[in-house]
Amino acid sequence: MSPRPRPARRRYPLSLHLRSALSRRRRLAAAVLVSLALGLVVLRLGPPRAGTVPVVTAAEALPAGTVLGPEQLAVAAYPRGLVPEGAVADPAELAGRTLAGAAGTGQPLTGSTVVGPGLLTGRPPGATAVTLRIDDPAVLQHVRAGDHVDVVGLSDDAPADAGLPDERRVLGRALPVLWVPDPASGAGGGLLTASPGEEAGLLVVGAPHEDAARLAGAGPSTVVLVPAPVSPSAEAAGP
Fold first, then answer.
1. Has residue 208 been placed in a domain?
2. Where among 68, 100, 117 does a domain terminate?
3. What is the radius of gyration, based on Cα positions, of the chain?
């Protein structure tokens, strides 16, 4: 008995094969896109990632010299990699402190933006931070934090040094500059720019505690850049 012939396989046109493959790939691509969309929705609606930390910021525009109250402080979530150096997480650490320079709304506030221990870090015991109003703000164009200045009183009521009439108005010698306004502030506008006149003429210097009241109450003053004092140990090490 001869074997039965096998039925011939149906052969489909090549175009039909191509359409079938494209259809399967479309369904796969659609499924991937739907999964991505669902993932984005979950990330959008889910809780914030643990990669942020709280940073205290100014709740409103604040001029220099403001005594910070709780209502003027806010807390924002910052990515860990963008947290400013010296940032503060608890508003209680800054409440009651005096702002050394103007701050814009949302600007992070650090220990160095307030008058106090932040500006006095590394200063000897007994040092204080004294805010001065300089008569001519143009004098401060070439003064930078870390420079040393003589503070000269412009009032005739300034105390005179007995026997030294040429020095009778010198209120402080070789005082370190702890803070000075940014020369570019107010030049280009923007969020962090202070209003005109808020910072102009302000200067913060370090001074011994016994000289702080005299400096603060001296009235209009000016400053003269001087070389930094040389410590006795440096003199001994010299040639």
1. yes
2. 117
3. 34
Dump pLDDT digits (tens) for 2-50.
Answer: 566 665 555 555 555 556 665 666 666 676 677 777 776 666 665 555 5
Each residue's pLDDT tens digit, 164-203: 444 457 889 999 998 887 665 443 333 333 444 556 788 8
Under a CB-based contact definition with an 8 Å cutoff, are residues 168 and 158 in contact? yes
SS3 assignment, position 143: coil
Strand pairing of 98-99 and 114-115? antiparallel
Domain that includes residue 133, residue range: 119-234
Task: Identify whether residues 227 and 126 lie together within a single domain.
Answer: yes
Rounded to whole angstroms, the Cα distance separating 109 from 59 reads 10
What b/e readout covers 104-126, taking b as 16+ CB neighbours within 10 angstroms? Answer: eeebbbbbbbbbbebbbeeeeee
Q: Rounded CA gap, 45 and 47, in Å?
A: 7
Sequence-distant (6+) residues with CB within 8 A of 97 are: 67, 68, 114, 115, 116
| Residue 104 and residue 136 in one domain | no
CB contact at 8 A, 64 and 185? no
CATH number, position 59: 3.90.1210.10
Q: Scanning the structure block, which residue is given the tokens 């600007």? A: 107
